[in-house]
Predict the 3D structure of the following.
Amino acid sequence: MTEPLDVRNLSKGLAYRGEVSGKRQTYYIFEGDDFFAVFSFSKTKPNSGNFNIVSPQAVEYVRSRFRRSKGITAKDVFAKGKRSRHVPNSLAALNVLYVLAAQGHAKVDARRSGPKLYFNFKSGRA
């Protein structure tokens, strides 16, 4: 999304698409008319949290580039997608991965330890 965000459009008709457990938090994925919203809530501050907006084009770009891949990190997605403008930084890459996991196209690899979060992709079919 390149144009400024309009709060009225963000709040219209959000549909819950799932949740994904990260290393320290759970992320809740919602879909709007032309975007995904990734919400997380603070564990230390009641009624506080963050959200990030993800474009459907970025989600499709990453899904098509990494289908059937294993052990993918946000750093991998950023490295492969930064020239496309779909993935401008590592945080954007991680949020795209959360959306793909909520959609069932990828899954967090719980077998791996350490600070990085790894994702395994399913086949390229929707």
Notes: The CA atoms of residues 19 and 28 lie 4 Å apart. The longest strand covers residues 15-21. The domain at 7-121 is CATH 1.10.10.10 (Arc Repressor Mutant, subunit A).
